[in-house]
Amino acid sequence: MIRIIDSRKEDDKDLLKKLLDRSQLDESVVLQRVEEIVSNVRNKGNAAVFEYTKMFDKVYLTAENMRVTKEELDDAYNNVDNELIEVIRRAKANIEEYHVKQKEKSWFSTEKDGVILGQILRPLEIVGVYVPGGTAPLPSSVLMNVIPAKVAGVEKIVMATPPGKDGKINPVILVAANEAGADEIYKMGGAQAIAALAFGTESIPKVDKVTGPGNIYVNTAKRLVYGYCDIDMFAGPSEIMVVADKTANAKFVAADLLSQAEHDVLSASVLVTDSEKLAYEVKNEVERQTAYLGRKEIINKSIDDYGAIVIVNDMEKAIELVNQIAPEHLELCVEEPFGMVGEIKNAGAIFLGNYASEPLGDYFAGPNHVLPTSGTARFFSPLNVGEFIKKTSLISYSRKALSNVKDDVILFAESEGLSAHANAIRVRFEKGE
């Protein structure tokens, strides 16, 4: 049952701490295990991946069957409803159109006396995309990870996703991967998949970057391989915060809170409102709607542990809470949502108005749904095209241009005690040079 916290009468610090600590639960317990998995995959390659897939997924992999074949892709299309395939294609078009607008260009500038400065942008060569299995297939995560990489111009996109007990990948996942443009798809999940992508094996190419959400084992593995390759972020359990005033529709708000609660037992669903009447209406709606939804066990656990309705004095306090929690998804169900946007400093994605429901962003609108969670929206951004681009600086000086600044550079170098640095400038102006 979702609880009501009246912050006008009681402290809400315990709620804040609980929400922000969700992704750290039991990390010390899993760290040692994940270190062992990562080390074994790094040292033993395919053999370790096969061993862990057999152990965790009850599937026997070999070098011959770990990669999805063209025949398996063709078969997937035969097992997915044509209407859903068309929806995937329309979603792809929206996501692609949005991400194309994020592309940057290389640039050069010419200064006086022969100084040329610039920046070259190049796509990463090989990227690994992780798509979790879990309690429900997530073709939307395939689109959201693969499409920005394709837009960036990445040469090869390697996808990993855990197989079912029958040794196969969900056909909807395969269709989404093929439509989005994944080049290679491997049947592996968990920490072992992250390690295989980061270090490479006899069958799997070593990638430059790993992206995609996952559970605590996946995120811990991403932390451990960071530095051997790049990663996107530590995207953990999903969360939504709805800020609503008296004009909000309680039925809509409750439905959106529940849409996140069904993801995972660690998902957080929080309403912040200055209307006590709305608070109790939403509480009743949450209970009413839960009764006819699927995944009740997950929803109830999530709502019991991480669901809350917080009553505040005013919208100023609501905004303060938003910026403290830095939610992954933020809905502004208020009379003037655009007037509030400027005050929001920390949020992964902001949904404005009663008809910008969060699931719209999950599947179809275009902005990426791989978002920072557990307070990391304070410093992380949504997955974007820039994540798949590397930048190289360019510097060119003529002799005259260097002559103008040589004394400054020499003094700077000598102030740091780096005489060879100073000498590298000085020798260029010795007699005869």
Tell me what you see in this structure.
- Substrate binds at residues 238, 260, 263, 329, 362, 416, 421.
- Residues 63-90 form a coiled coil.
- Zn(2+) binds at residues 260, 263, 362, 421.
- One of its GO terms (molecular function) is histidinol dehydrogenase activity.
- The active site is at residues 328-329.
- The mean pLDDT is 93.
- The protein has 17 helices and 14 strands.
- The protein is globular and about 90 Å long.
- The chain folds into 2 domains: 3-23 and 236-376, 3-Layer(aba) Sandwich (Rossmann fold); 45-231, Nitrogenase molybdenum iron protein domain (Rossmann fold, 3-Layer(aba) Sandwich).
- The protein has helices spanning 13-20, 27-44, 46-57, 70-78, 82-100, 139-152, 171-180, 190-199, 216-225, 250-261, 276-290, 296-306, 315-325, 337-341, 358-363, 399-415, 419-426, and strands spanning 3-6, 107-110, 116-123, 126-130, 156-161, 184-187, 209-211, 230-231, 239-244, 268-273, 307-311, 329-333, 349-352, 389-396.
- α2 (27-44) packs across α8 (190-199).
- 45% of the residues lie in helices and 16% in strands.
- The strands form 3 sheets. A 6-stranded parallel β-sheet has the order 1-11-10-9-12-13, with helices on both faces. A 5-stranded parallel β-sheet has the order 6-5-4-7-8, sandwiched between helices.
- The chain is α/β, with parallel strands linked by helices and 433 residues long.
